[in-house]
Amino acid sequence: MGFLLIIESILLMLSAVVSFYYHEISGDAFLISASITIAVGVIFRLLGAETREQFIGKREGFLVVSLSWIVLSAFGMLPFIFSGVIPGISDAYFETMSGFTTTGSTIIPDVDIVPLGLLFWRCLTQWVGGLGIVVFALAVLPIIGGNASFLFDAETTGIARERFQPRVTQVAKRLLFTYVAITSIIAILLWLGPMNAFDAVCHALSTASTGGFSTKQASIAYWDSAYIDYVITIFMFVGGINFSLIYFLFKGKYKKLFQNEELKWYFFIYITFTAVITIGLIYSGKISVAEDAFRTSIFQVTSAITTTGFSTADFTSWGPFYMFLIYCLMMICACAGSTSGGIKVIRVVVLFKNAINEFKRQVHPNAILPVRINNQVLPVDVVTKILAFIFLYLLILFMSFLVLSSTGIDFEDSITASVSCMGNVGLGSLSDSGHFGHLSDTAKWYLSFLMLTGRLELFTILSLLMPAFWRK
């Protein structure tokens, strides 16, 4: 935790540089925040100096990963508080947790008046959280001398990750290299369009991480540019692909990309929903120009399925049919091992294949019908874990509807907020204001917990709450 806080203090200093470059007084808030963060980080390192080589097991890995998101969000909210932009602790913590978990939901009613340094910090938190706080740290510093794989496995998501041959620290470095390369390409392409350098960098950070924070209140619609829409659409889609596959693509290993079953399903769902919404918008007369309908549809579909949360149109005004499709995408989401949230395509595919097998067993009760992914048989325990994950995911969503409703939020907004925060989407806006600022403190803290639970995919964070997990 000390190492992680020291890294965060460096990122805070980077944001201070941006603030001072634009002659903003918020730079002082970053300096104070960075000083407090590095001081606590050094104290943590000194306290743990004698035990830093101690073996880390699964329980310790789960604890470190969970604490990293909680503690770094607590220190990451300090610039908002010291600058006075978000004076309340509940609001500041919600905003920061939304950043680190790449949710993109906000309590700020008008981001156009927020200092540029703080806008950069919001996007930077998403960029770090997109790769994963611990994975990012493993790539930068040799934090753990023992078994770092428990940390890596506790934070990276999915059931069918492509495994590298080197040790975990080398895996983290390669993922970070791929991440930085994609972010740099996005920034350059956006800068070549109507965006200035600052907006291009911020939106590159948000796009690569599929986060969704923008420097403009109108989001991507502010530029009203087909070029910007298509560039961000392409790289949002890329952000929804398993980053291990993208790395192999950079290495020229194209077969791994085209043979991956999850990627094929991801593309199929993506194309199908885009086509249905495009045709529907044209024939319903909601958007008369075919190219506009296609561009709007593919952008919103990509934003929803990758849990980015950017918008160029208000899809809620299209009608309940289109809202239902978008919310389905917000729950299914993209590939495991990507920066997206939600259930993930691979789990939906396994659920579908297992259901088909159950129908076949009705006719052939003695048949052995395993679930296969990429022509490999999935172990029964993996299939069971997926079924448990989906059940828990839906159960927590249902419970969240009730919890949020009890705080005074109407039922429709309770559904919107729960699906948005649990899936780390940020696309669903509340009907009253379009932001979360008017919610009660209880609702904000609960939604912050929901964002963390969704980002760490349920088991990592919920395991810590089970007494049996801590028994020897």
Automatic annotation (TrEMBL):
Q: What is its membrane topology?
A: Multi-pass membrane protein
Q: Which residues cross the membrane?
A: 29-49, 61-82, 127-154, 175-193, 230-250, 265-285, 321-343, 382-404, 445-470
What do the Gene Ontology cellular component annotations say?
Answer: plasma membrane
Q: Which domain of life is it from?
A: Bacteria
- InterPro entries xref list: Cat_transpt, TrkH
Keyword set, alphabetical order: Cell inner membrane, Cell membrane, Ion transport, Membrane, Metal-binding, Potassium, Potassium transport, Transmembrane, Transmembrane helix, Transport
At which positions is K(+) bound?
Answer: 102-103, 211, 307-308, 424-425
- State the compartments where it is located: Cell inner membrane
Give GO MF terms, alphabetically: metal ion binding; potassium:chloride symporter activity
What is the protein's major site of localization?
A: membrane
User: Is the keyword Cell inner membrane assigned to this protein?
Assistant: yes
Pfam families named among the record's database cross-references: TrkH (PF02386)
Keyword Metal-binding annotated: yes
Family per record: Belongs to the TrkH potassium transport family.
Name recorded for this polypeptide: Trk system potassium uptake protein TrkH
- What is the protein's species of origin? Dysgonomonas alginatilytica
